Amino acid sequence: MIRAVAWDIDGTLVDSEGLHHLALVDVSSRHGVRLELDDPRFIGVSMDQVWVALSPLYPSELSQSAWLEEIVASYLRKSELLRAFPGALRALEQLRESGVRQCCVSNSVRPVVDANLRVIGADAIVEFSICRDDVVHGKPDPAPYLLACQRLDLAPAEVLVVEDSTTGMAAGRAAGCRVMRIGSDHCDFTEIVDAATGGAGFAA
Question: Which residues pair with 70 in a beta bridge?
Fold first, then answer.
């Protein structure tokens, strides 16, 4: 039986992947690295992994912490432009009305997570959020979802993970949670509400 839903945020609840990538492109350009606006390599990937991939291209004096601060600042400057995906907030409200507990689990750092949830109004609905700062290893490691289950005081099998990326899905499965993938070519929010409230089966 599903007793809680653990939502990914970026690309799942909030249409933010473009803004994340734009911030990365902007900061990389400042440091002499050109990235394409349609480069898909870093979607759903933790910033630690992005740094590992790109740091050899940056000036040697640039530290990971300084780089990340620049990216976060660039993102936050435009965060008020963010919008929830159609149907996302209604799904959150329906689950709350049905007594299904909810939290968010993200590979983004705390300032970004808080801004995303605040801008779309989800911070008033979910119980808590797990960010990259809360764990040693981010997705695809199961640690973020295992921590969410711990805070919910629920077994992983009682928690439905909703993700848009293969990276996040791998993390949810490794934690032992049930997983559904949302996206234009996958399920929609109605299917997630049905699944969490006993109205449908689960996607692989």
Answer: none
> In which element (H, E) is residue 21 found?
helix 17-30
Q: By the 8 A CB rule, do 23 and 74 touch?
A: yes
CB 165 within 8 A of CB 172: no
**Strand, coil or helix: 198:** coil
Strand partners, 161: 6, 179
- The pLDDT of 148-176, averaged and rounded, is 97
The string of DSSP codes covering 116-161 is HHHHHTGGGTSS-EE-GGGSSS-TTSSHHHHHHHHHHT--GGGEEE
pLDDT in tens, 92-126: 999 999 999 999 999 999 999 999 999 999 999 99
Model pLDDT for residues 159-171, shown as the tens digit of each residue: 999 999 999 999 9
Fill in the DSSP letter of residue 40. -
Contact present, 88 and 120 (Cβ < 8 Å)? yes
Do residues 90 and 189 lie in contact, with contact meaning Cβ atoms separated by under 8 Å? yes
Residue 177 DSSP one-character state: -
